Amino acid sequence: MKFYRKQPLEAEQFDGSQKLVFGYSVIPSGIIDAITGKPVYYSMLVDDVCQDSDDDTGVVLEVSDWIVKEADEIEVIADDVFKQTYAELPVIPEEVAYMIKQAKNGDYKLGVALYGAYEGVWKPSVAKWILMHTEVFARAWINGYTVEADK
Q1: Largest Cα–Cα distance of the chain, in whole Å?
Q2: What tens-digit pLDDT sequence spans the chain (151 residues)?
Q3: How many Cβ atoms are within 10 Å of 68's Cβ, its own excluded?
Q4: Could you say which of 4, 44, 69, 136 is the most buried, measured as most Cβ atoms within 10 Å of its Cβ?
Q5: What's the half-sphere exposure (Cβ side, CA atoms, 13 Å) at 5?
Q6: Residue 24 in contact with residue 44, Cβ under 8 Å?
Q7: Where do runs of H (alpha helix) occur along 11-144?
Q8: Partner residues linked to 28 by β-bridges
Q9: What pLDDT score was predicted for residue 20?
């Protein structure tokens, strides 16, 4: 049996405060939690056929559920299942992202990139970051990454 990893996808965790998720309206249910006074369930009206279709379907979700959008389809996944299935892409500094892009354009392999950090081939700040975050760097190299926001 072969196993495949999923490509990056859009996902947002529902916290109960959102009025819109991926452009769809979120509507609280009429069932109220006696302790918190907040709705127990929420609904999202999703047109999963096409924009002009009369075949609308509703999606039921709870606070902490993840709403996943893949290829214009919406799926709701419980928090524990989502965390077991998906891993967030690592966040790396812009200069490390630039180095990964240049190294891959030069057809370098991961081992060569790590060895270059060890031998001081890369800019000192990049090499230091790679050596201090080797596992994160390897995940970013293999699975992709997001660049950290400017401070």
Answers
A1: 63
A2: 666 666 677 888 998 888 888 888 888 877 777 777 777 788 887 754 333 334 455 678 888 899 888 777 788 899 998 888 887 888 999 999 999 999 999 999 999 999 999 999 999 999 999 999 999 999 999 988 989 876 5
A3: 19
A4: 44
A5: 11
A6: yes
A7: 79-85, 94-105, 110-119, 124-132, 134-143
A8: 42
A9: 82
Which residue bears the tokens 């996902």?
A: 11
Residue 28 in 3-state DSSP? strand
pLDDT for the residue numbered 59: 79
Find, among 28, 24, 110, 11, the residue nearest to 67 by Cα. 11
Tokens describing residue 26: 């979120």
Two tokens at 49? 């056929």
Spell out the residues 6+ positions from residue 52 whose beta carbon is closer than 8 angstroms to its own: none
SS3 assignment, position 58: strand
> How far is Cα 34 from Cα 31, in angstroms, rounded to an integer?
9
Amino acid at 74: I
C-alpha to C-alpha distances, 39 to 17, 45, 142, nearest whole angstrom:
11, 17, 41
Q: What are the distances in angstroms from CA 49 to CA 53, 56, 71, 94, 107?
A: 6, 8, 12, 40, 42
- Over its C-alpha atoms, the chain yields an Rg (Å, rounded) of 21
Which residue do the tokens 């990893």 mark? 5
